[in-house]
Amino acid sequence: MRSGQDERREFEYIRRGTLCLIANFQVATGKVLAPTIGPTRTEEDFARHIEQTVATDEKAGWVFVVDNLTTHCSESLVRLVARLEGFTGDLGTKGGSGILKDVASRRTFLVEAARRVRFVYTPKHCSWLNQIECWFSILVRRALKRGSFSSTEALAARIRWTYMGRPLVT
Q1: What is the DSSP string of 122-161?
Q2: Residue 161 confidence class, pLDDT cut points 50, 70, 90
Q3: Does residue 102 sit within a domain?
Q4: Hey, is 62 helix, strand or coil?
Q5: Mind listing the pLDDT tens digit for each residue in 82-97?
Q6: In this structure, what are the phi and psi dihedrals at residue 151, rounded to the nearest 5 degrees?
Q7: pLDDT confidence of residue 147
Q8: For residue 25, what are the domain limits?
Q9: Which of 14, 31, 129, 130 is the most buried (most CB within 10 A)?
């Protein structure tokens, strides 16, 4: 390394896998709520995460601020919200008709203010407005950057220790 040069990885760098962290940031308390660490971030993974989060207080009203990732307005998520709220109407079919027809119709269903579990979508290219995105950035800078992990289990343990151990923001 020399002054003025960019940092580089060793040629012997071995990637041992990746993990997806799905988490919620409770703005009022500053706590990360019900994080999920897994190998993928499919629509089913996200819906399962939302279900796990709502289960922490089933009677509460929930407002999730999310970016425009398609998993955040998926068929699985609409079906979950409908089930959680006891929705008995016809959801239609994905790609066909009704609420499930397309992304726009699913999003319209999920943003309705009268819902106990509803979603607010950040404008495109503005995910930095979402507080969990800010927390993810701090997590990477303070706990993961330049880390060397022998396995995905070791990486998951480091992430868990971070939000269960010392605070990221001092």
Answers
A1: PPTT-GGGSHHHHHHHHHIIIIITT---SSHHHHHHHHHH
A2: confident
A3: yes
A4: strand
A5: 999 999 999 999 999 9
A6: -160, 170
A7: 85
A8: 20-164
A9: 130
